[in-house]
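With this grant's support, we have settled on a layout for protein records. One resulting record is reproduced below.
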Amino acid sequence: MQIALGQAPDDIRWLLLMYQLPTHPAYLRTKIWRRLQGLGAVPVRASAYVLPLSDEAREDFRWLVEEITKGGGEAAVCEARLVDGLRNEEIEAQFSAARDEAYAEIIDEAQAMLAGEPPTVAAVARLRRRFDGQTALDYFAARRREPAEVLLLKLEARVAGQEPIVDGAGRGDLVGRVWVTRQHLFVDRVACAWAVKRFIDADARFKFVADPHYPSQPGELRFDMFESEIGHEGDKCSLEVLISRAGLEDDAALGAIAEVVHDIDLKDDKFGRPETAGVLLVLKGICAVGRADEQRIARATALLNDLYDSYAAGTA
């Protein structure tokens, strides 16, 4: 197999992550493998994984590069096209096979629910969230997607009408800053920008840069960038860290939005809110290719304000 890197845009279909991990710590290899599985990436070589080219894939791989380098490894991300050997159709088949395997498990569980005692709303909702998580990674319409969807609709119809089972101070140094982040805002960055304007500094100004390693200048504060002042910490997304830094942890509605953003950004389904898939779908439209970052913030602000008000009123 040969891969050509850096060709003309029309030739490029894939984003390629190549990495090398140190022998220790041993858990890092498992952690990176799980993260790759969570992204839906497929291997083309040992320690070389691909995703279909997109802004979201770039961001996901960039965070993986940071994790790998922080762990003492080496990594690089390239835009690529296949030259010979492995064909595009074969890679697409790998993506679909992985999703079909996951859909098959969902189909089995759905059939068991339909054949047994009436399922609860909570059980069906959990299965729906699993399905939605797989469809977010289903880049090439795997064949078992539709049968799984049909069974889920039958389950949801069966449980219709059931009652659901409920399954920092220190803001001063954040005011008057120029907030800097990477261009082409998506979920975590656009949510941080909204939170800054609504809860921290209504007059905040933003700068969008191409260099993910942009060095901070006097009066600036970087967020959701490599080595930024506010960014991912442990298993927290940047919005969660921002909320903590600003002393806003007691705001339950804001915390609910952070849970949605966390699951979209980190793809770990930690909180499993049923509205997450819908929010992601709308944000993908808001952050469409070619839309300026200022427009993305403006459009996302309307969405997130309405979502916040719904959480605050207890209607979401």
